[in-house]
Design a protein that fits this description.
Layout lengths: L2 H23 E5 L14 E5 L14 E9 L5 E10 L4 E5 L2 E4 L2 E2 L14 E5 L4 E5 L17 E2 L3 E10 L5 E2 L4
Antiparallel strand pairs: 1-2, 2-11, 3-4, 3-11, 4-9, 5-6, 5-8, 6-7, 9-10, 11-12
Length: 177
């Protein structure tokens, strides 16, 4: 084998190894619909950290996560949803007069579409290992307020949204770490 062929094989092998390692830690996803507007829009292309909640790390209030739901798409497959973590295990969440309350204290939410959370949720305690997640566009989101979605078990969480790749004018890191 010639030197140039060896170098080419080495480059391809290295690229393959880097890709395999990256796939273990991050995954791309797209936003479908407007349930996370204004934070994310239909067609946004995001990266999620698949390892964000390993090694005893837990989701935090305000994290934007992708999770496997029990809702079905048009092909009968379970849908992955993107939502914001609102309440943590052991906390009590309620919705009254368009506002969200955690343990009786109003939640400050500057990321919602219109500042109104519809529906009434009577105080409910979040079970251990579960999270209460909602879309930022509360008037147009199927989330933990609806029975088909309900509480999100930590095992359902695919990853935490960490980076927006598209649209290019909004490219950048998401949230806090």
């Amino acid at each position: 084998m010639g030197e140039s062929v060896k170098e080419w094989v080495k480059a391809v092998a290295s690229a393959g190894m880097i890709a395999l390692i990256a796939i273990q830690f991050v995954a791309p996803t797209s936003v479908y619909g407007n349930s996370m507007s204004p934070s994310f829009s239909n067609g946004d292309y995001l990266l999620i950290s698949k390892q964000a909640y390993s090694f005893d790390k837990e989701p935090q209030r305000g994290d934007v996560v992708v999770f496997q739901s029990h809702l079905k798409d048009e092909k009968g497959q379970e849908k992955k949803l993107i939502k914001r973590v609102i309440a943590l295990p052991g906390e009590t969440v309620s919705v009254e007069d368009g506002k969200v309350y955690i343990n009786g204290k109003e939640l400050e939410e500057d990321y919602t579409a219109d500042g109104i959370t519809d529906g009434v949720t009577y105080p409910v305690e979040i079970p251990e290992g579960c999270y209460f997640c909602m879309g930022d566009n509360r008037l147009h989101s199927k989330d933990s307020r609806s029975l088909p979605v309900g509480f999100v078990d930590k095992e359902q969480i695919v990853g935490k949204v960490i980076f927006r790749l598209y649209p290019f004018d909004k490219i950048g890191r998401i949230g806090r770490d």
